């Protein structure tokens, strides 16, 4: 007998490039919590000011917060909830995970 397991829930992996003195980052985190209520995702934060993240500091020092979804640039500076939900839904559709 073959038992079919349910497909894993669609998941997105977001990465937020940030640092500890970033008020826009605080605002972005709050908005992302609203987004997560509509589109599930995991998120990790990368502190660009840590020595091991110097590559990202050079890339984003004037632009935090920067958000990547599944290792691709998604947005920077401000998170518009409606637009971000739409973008993430499109990523899921195009990856066949919806």
How would you portray this structure in words?
This protein is of the alpha+beta class. The protein has 3 helices and 4 strands; from the N terminus they run βαβαββα. The protein has helices at 23-36, 54-60, 81-94; strands at 13-18, 42-47, 66-69, 72-76. It has a 4-stranded mixed sheet, covered by helices on one side. α1 links the parallel β1 (13-18) and β2 (42-47). α1 (23-36) packs across α3. The protein starts with 12 loop residues before the first strand and ends with a helix.
- Category by helix and strand content: alpha+beta
What Rg is obtained from the alpha carbons, in whole angstroms?
15 Å
What's the helix count?
Answer: 3
Poorly predicted spans: none
- Spatial sequence of strands, sheet with the most strands: 2-1-3-4
Silhouette: globular
> How far is the N terminus from the C terminus?
28 Å
- Taken in chain order, the helices and strands follow as EHEHEEH
Number of strands: 4
Summarize the entry for a quick read.
With 98 residues, this protein is of the alpha+beta class. It contains three helices and four strands, in the order E-H-E-H-E-E-H.
């Amino acid at each position: 007998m073959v038992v079919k397991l349910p497909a894993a829930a669609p998941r997105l992996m977001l990465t937020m490039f940030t640092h500890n003195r970033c008020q826009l980052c605080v605002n972005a985190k709050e908005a992302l919590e609203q987004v997560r209520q509509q589109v599930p995702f995991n998120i990790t934060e990368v502190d660009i000011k840590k020595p091991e993240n110097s590559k990202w500091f050079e890339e984003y020092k004037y632009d935090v917060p920067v958000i990547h979804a599944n290792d691709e640039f998604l947005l920077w500076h401000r998170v518009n909830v409606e637009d971000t939900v739409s973008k993430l839904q499109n990523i899921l559709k195009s990856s066949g995970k919806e």
